[in-house]
C-alpha cells in the first residue's frame, strides 16, 4: 500500500490537488493534452490546490500531489505523490494507486494514453538519463520502459485520444546530466522521430494535427506533419511554461511567471488573456460523456440475443464494424448446471453465448445464429442430450447449416471438464468455483475468457467443484494438470476445494465481494464494466461471455435494491479513468434504474453519461499502441493475483 494508505477522505473537504510545475531541463515544465471536448480550464500552483473555473479545488489533504493530468473523460487525474507513487484522484477525493514508488527513482509528468487503458510518465535514477515508463492504469501491473535506452534523456510525455506519444529529448553526459539543446519528437514504440529542435515541454492536440511547445520562454505551435510551419504564439512579457492545447487545438493555455495562467489563440503574435484567479500550471479538464448501455429483451432468449447483437457482426455484411464471430455457444435455459463454463468457452472461441429450452431451439436463438455465423460454423452444445440439450435441438442447429459439437460429461462437474478441455487441455490457469450455485462461477467465466484473448499469451478455464469437495473426475483432472498450471479458488467453496493443490484464494464474504475481487485480481485498464443481478444467472451467463470478449470484468449487484450496490461504487469510481461504457444486463425488472444510474454516476466525469438501450456498437479497443501492446503483459501470475486481492481487501476495509 502507498504511504499513507490510500482510502476515502470524505471529511477532508473539497480542497486539495497540488500539481507541481516540475522543471526537468530545457527551461520548461509539464504539458498536458486534452483527450476529448474541453471542459473548464483548471490550474495548480504547486501547493495543495487545483483551482477550477469556479475557484473551488479538489483533492486529498494527506498528499502532496504533483503533475496531475486528466483522464479522457475528465473523471480522474493521475499524479505523482510525495512518496513517488503514481496514483489517481477524482471529485470524491478517493485516491487509488497505479504504481508504487521505486527506491531512488524520481517520477514526473504522468499522462493517460489514448483511451486511458495505460498511463505513462518520466522516471530518473541518479546517474542515469530520464526515461519514459508506463503501466496498465490499475494497481499492481508491471512497469515497463517505453523509451529507447540510447543514452539520451526522454521526458515530458504527452498523448491524445489516438495514443500518439510526443516527448522531449535531450543529450546526457556520462553522469546522467542534461547537456545541449532539447528537442521534441514522436515516440512510436522504440522509434523516435524528431518534430522540432530547440524545443521543450511538448503538448499535442486532440486530433494529433499540431503541437505546442516552449522555445526561449515563449509558446510556439507547429503542425505535426514533416516540414510544417512553426508559429511563435507569444512574444515578450513574463516567461511562459507548461503549455496545454484545448481540444480543437485553437487555444493554448500556459503558466506565466509561475503566478498566473494565460491563454492565447494558436496564431502568430496572438493577444494573451491573463486569468488571475488561476495560479500556476494549467490543464484543460475534458468534458467527454460516458454512457451506460442496458442490454435486454422480453425474456432470457431476447436478452442473450441483444447481448450478442451489441458486439458481434452480421456475417453477411462485410462492412459491419463489429467483431466477427467464428463460433457460438448454446446452453440450456432452465438451469445453470451445465452452462457455468460456457462464458469462458465463448470468449475463448470468439463468439456469443446463447440459450434455448432443452427440447427445442428458440426462434429468437435460431435467428441470431443465422445472423452471426457463416454456414458451416461450429455451435457448441453444452451438456448431454438426455439431460441438457436434446437431439432435437442438435438436429435443428444442424438443419440451419451449422456444425453442432456437444461438450458433455456424466454430470455438471464432468461437463465443466469437457468444456475446459475444448479451450485448452493443459491450461495456464484454472479458476475453480462451486457448481452447486452460480454467482462465483459467473464472475470466474468472464475472467477466464479474457485470459484467452489474442495477445495475452495465456489460457484459462473454469472448473466446477462440488462445494468444498472435488468429484472423482475433478480430482483426476487436477492430478493430471501440468505443474506450471496456476490454480485459483474463486469464492469460499472454490478456495476450500483447491487448497490441497495450492489454490490461490480469490474470495469475499459475499457473492458480490467475490466478483469484485475477481475484477481486482484479473483485470486492469479496461474500457467497460458489466453488471448483472446477483440473484439469478441467465443474464450474467450471456453477459459474462461478452465481458470476456471485451477483456473487462463482470460484477454483481442487488438488482432491485433501492440503493446502488457498493461494488458498483467501488469499482466504477476506481476505474473511471479508463472506463467509458457501463453495461447493464437485463431489463429494469431485474436490474433497476437505481443500479444503472449509479453505475453511470461513478464511471463518468463532469459531462456525465448517456443512458442507451440495446446499442449495437459495444466493441473492444484494439488500438495497438494503447491496448494490445501495453496490455499484452497484463496477465498476472499467482503472486500478483494474491497481492491484488490483498490490496483490494485493504482498500475496502478502510472505507
Which helices and strands, and how do they pair?
Layout: E1 38-44, E2 50-51, E3 65-70, E4 76-81, E5 86-90, E6 95-99, E7 105-113, E8 118-125, E9 131-136, E10 144-145, E11 153-159, E12 165-172, E13 178-188, E14 191-197, E15 200-204, E16 210-215, E17 218-223, E18 230-232, E19 240-245, E20 251-256, E21 260-265, E22 273-275, E23 281-286, E24 290-295, H1 300-311, E25 327-332, H2 342-349, E26 353-356, H3 363-372, E27 378-382, H4 391-399, E28 403-407, H5 412-423, E29 429-434, H6 439-451, E30 460-465, H7 472-480, E31 486-490, H8 491-498, E32 504-506, H9 511-522, E33 528-533, H10 538-550, E34 554-557, H11 566-574, E35 581-585, H12 593-603, E36 609-613, H13 624-628, H14 638-653
Parallel strand pairs: 24-35, 24-36, 25-26, 25-27, 27-28, 29-30, 29-31, 31-32, 33-34, 33-35
Antiparallel strand pairs: 1-2, 1-23, 3-4, 4-5, 5-6, 7-8, 8-9, 9-10, 11-12, 12-13, 13-14, 15-16, 16-17, 17-18, 19-20, 20-21, 21-22
Fold and architecture overview:
This protein is α/β, with parallel strands linked by helices and 655 residues long. The protein folds into two domains: 38-284, Neuraminidase (6 Propeller), CATH 2.120.10.30; 290-625 and 635-640, no CATH class. 22% of the residues lie in helices and 31% in strands. The strands form nine sheets. It has a five-stranded parallel β-sheet. The chain has a four-stranded antiparallel β-sheet with strand order 3-4-5-6, with no helix packed on it. Strand 27, helix 4 and strand 28 (403-407) form a beta-alpha-beta unit. Helix 2 (342-349) packs parallel to helix 5. It comes from Micromonospora thermarum. Residues 1-33 form the signal peptide. It holds the Pfam family PD40. This is Cell wall-binding repeat-containing protein.
Amino acid at each position: 500500500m502507498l504511504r499513507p494508505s490510500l482510502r476515502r477522505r470524505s471529511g477532508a473537504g473539497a480542497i486539495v490537488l497540488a500539481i507541481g510545475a516540475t522543471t526537468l531541463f530545457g527551461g520548461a515544465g509539464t504539458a498536458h493534452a486534452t483527450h476529448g471536448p474541453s471542459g473548464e480550464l483548471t490550474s495548480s500552483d504547486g501547493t495543495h490546490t487545483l483551482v477550477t473555473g469556479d475557484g473551488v479545488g479538489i483533492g486529498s489533504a494527506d498528499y502532496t500531489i504533483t503533475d496531475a493530468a486528466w483522464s479522457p473523460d475528465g473523471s480522474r487525474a493521475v499524479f505523482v505523490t510525495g512518496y513517488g507513487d503514481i496514483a489517481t484522484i477524482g471529485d470524491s477525493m478517493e485516491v487509488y494507486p497505479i504504481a508504487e514508488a521505486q527506491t531512488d527513482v524520481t517520477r514526473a509528468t504522468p499522462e493517460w494514453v489514448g483511451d486511458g487503458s495505460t498511463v505513462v510518465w518520466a522516471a530518473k535514477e541518479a546517474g542515469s538519463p530520464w526515461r519514459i515508463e508506463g503501466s496498465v492504469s490499475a494497481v499492481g501491473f508491471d512497469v515497463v520502459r517505453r523509451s529507447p535506452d540510447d543514452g539520451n534523456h526522454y521526458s515530458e510525455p504527452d498523448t491524445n485520444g489516438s495514443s500518439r506519444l510526443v516527448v522531449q529529448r535531450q543529450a546526457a553526459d556520462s553522469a546522467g546530466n542534461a547537456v545541449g539543446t532539447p528537442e521534441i519528437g514522436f515516440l512510436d514504440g522504440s522509434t523516435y522521430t524528431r518534430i522540432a529542435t530547440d524545443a521543450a515541454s511538448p503538448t499535442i492536440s486532440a486530433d494529433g494535427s499540431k503541437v505546442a511547445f516552449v522555445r526561449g520562454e515563449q509558446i510556439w505551435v507547429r503542425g505535426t506533419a514533416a516540414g510544417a510551419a512553426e508559429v511563435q504564439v507569444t512574444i515578450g512579457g513574463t516567461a511562459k511554461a507548461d503549455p496545454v492545447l484545448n481540444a480543437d487545438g485553437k487555444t493554448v493555455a500556459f503558466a506565466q511567471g509561475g503566478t498566473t495562467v494565460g491563454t492565447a489563440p494558436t496564431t502568430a503574435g496572438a493577444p494573451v488573456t491573463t486569468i488571475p484567479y488561476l495560479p500556476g500550471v494549467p490543464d484543460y479538464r475534458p468534458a467527454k460523456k460516458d454512457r451506460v448501455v442496458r442490454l435486454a429483451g422480453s425474456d432470457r432468449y431476447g436478452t442473450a440475443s441483444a447481448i450478442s447483437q451489441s458486439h458481434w457482426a452480421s456475417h453477411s455484411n462485410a462492412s459491419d464494424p463489429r467483431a466477427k464471430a467464428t463460433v457460438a455457444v448454446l446452453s440450456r435455459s432452465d438451469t445453470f448446471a451445465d452452462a457455468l463454463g460456457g462464458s469462458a468457452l465463448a470468449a475463448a472461441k470468439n463468439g456469443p453465448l446463447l440459450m434455448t429450452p432443452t427440447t427445442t431451439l428458440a426462434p429468437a436463438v435460431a435467428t441470431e445464429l443465422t445472423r452471426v455465423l457463416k454456414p458451416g460454423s461450429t455451435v457448441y452444445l453444452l451438456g448431454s442430450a438426455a439431460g441438457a440439450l436434446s437431439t432435437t435441438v442438435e438436429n435443428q442447429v444442424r438443419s440451419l447449416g451449422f456444425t453442432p459439437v456437444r461438450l458433455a460429461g456424466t454430470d455438471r462437474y464432468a461437463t465443466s471438464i469437457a468444456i475446459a478441455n475444448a479451450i485448452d487441455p493443459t491450461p495456464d490457469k484454472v479458476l475453480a468455483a462451486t457448481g452447486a450455485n452460480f454467482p462465483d462461477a459467473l464472475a470466474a467465466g468472464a475472467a477466464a475468457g479474457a485470459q484467452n484473448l489474442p495477445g495475452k499469451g495465456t489460457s484459462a478455464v473454469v472448473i466446477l467443484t462440488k462445494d468444498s469437495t472435488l468429484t472423482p473426475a475433478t480430482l483426476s483432472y487436477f492430478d493430471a494438470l501440468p505443474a506450471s498450471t496456476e490454480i485459483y479458488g474463486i469464492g469460499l467453496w472454490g478456495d476450500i476445494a483447491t487448497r490441497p493443490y495450492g489454490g490461490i484464494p480469490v474470495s469475499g464474504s459475499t457473492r458480490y465481494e467475490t466478483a469484485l475481487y475477481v475484477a481486482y485480481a484479473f483485470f486492469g485498464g479496461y474500457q467497460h464494466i458489466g453488471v448483472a443481478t446477483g440473484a439469478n444467472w441467465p443474464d450474467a451467463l450471456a453477459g459474462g461471455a461478452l465481458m470476456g470478449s471485451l477483456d473487462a470484468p463482470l460484477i454483481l449487484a442487488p438488482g432491485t435494491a433501492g440503493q446502488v450496490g457498493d461494488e458498483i461504487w467501488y469499482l466504477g469510481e476506481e476505474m473511471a479513468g479508463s472506463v467509458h461504457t457501463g453495461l447493464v444486463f437485463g431489463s429494469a425488472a431485474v436490474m433497476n434504474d437505481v443500479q444503472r444510474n449509479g453505475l453511470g454516476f461513478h464511471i463518468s466525469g463532469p459531462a456525465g453519461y448517456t443512458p442507451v438501450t440495446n446499442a449495437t456498437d459495444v466493441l473492444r479497443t484494439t488500438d495497438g499502441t494503447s491496448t494490445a501492446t501495453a496490455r499484452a503483459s497484463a496477465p498476472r501470475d499467482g503472486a500478483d493475483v494474491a497481492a491484488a486481492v490483498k490490496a483490494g481487501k485493504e482498500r475496502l476495509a478502510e472505507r
